[in-house]
Write a structure and sequence with these properties.
Largest sheet: 6 strands, parallel
Order of helices and strands: EEEHEHEEEHEHEHEEEE
Number of domains: 1
Number of helices: 5
Strand content: 35-45%
Radius of gyration: 17 Å
Structural class: alpha/beta
């Protein structure tokens, strides 16, 4: 921890101070919100993450709204591609329920569904796909995204993120964890009986 209430970490070549946000009496996280870090940050991070993903020869980028959208745009641009697909947790009329996977995010804590627009399924089918997001924590959103890509016939070849939090995501992703590429890693934080926050990596 750097200054009071913040955690300093690196995201590729960039350094950020992130607010520490309690999710419960026991669990606190450093909150990285890509959309709050500006255009230059997203462009640099997207370019650096694309460098890690390019060897997988992706043909399409898939990400999760809303936080993953700037990253999807910048990674797509840096890879020299011109299309990406965004998955949604907020119900919308045009999305329906035909392509939906259950998910529970660490920051919401309530059951949700991750949805793909059926009209975008053809863009995914048969293509080499990288799934990108700002943070991989529990791995639940990433696992649901990979499941949707596979359901419509896409071929997930790698997953990219700005940072991981803790290590629980490895179990959640199983064999897919081997192809995760990130620009940084952070712990989660637990509070001691005396009230101090300690870093937890496992």
């Amino acid at each position: 921890m750097d200054r009071a209430g913040h955690y300093r970490t690196t995201v590729g070549s960039q350094t950020v101070d992130l607010p520490l946000v309690p999710l419960s009496d026991e669990l606190t996280i450093a909150l990285l919100i890509c959309v709050d870090l500006g255009v230059a940050f997203a462009a640099t991070a997207g370019r650096e993450l694309a460098d890690h993903l390019e060897p997988f020869r992706p043909e399409l980028v898939v990400s999760v709204a809303t936080m993953g959208i700037p990253l999807a745009i910048e990674v797509t641009r840096a890879l020299g591609l011109d299309d990406y697909v965004i998955l949604h947790k907020t119900p919308k009329t045009h999305l329906g329920e035909s392509l939906a996977e259950p998910v529970r995010s660490i920051t919401t804590g309530v059951p949700q569904k991750l949805r793909m627009d059926p009209d975008r399924a053809e863009a995914v089918r048969g293509r080499r796909v990288v799934v990108v997001d700002d943070v991989i924590s529990t791995g639940a959103s990433t696992r649901a995204a990979l499941a949707l890509v596979r359901r419509v016939g896409g071929r997930p070849v790698a997953t990219g993120a700005l940072v991981t939090e803790g290590s629980g995501w490895r179990t959640a992703l199983g064999d897919d964890a081997d192809n995760v590429r990130v620009l940084g890693a952070m712990p989660v934080f637990r509070r001691t009986p005396g009230g101090a926050l300690v870093e937890v990596w496992d």
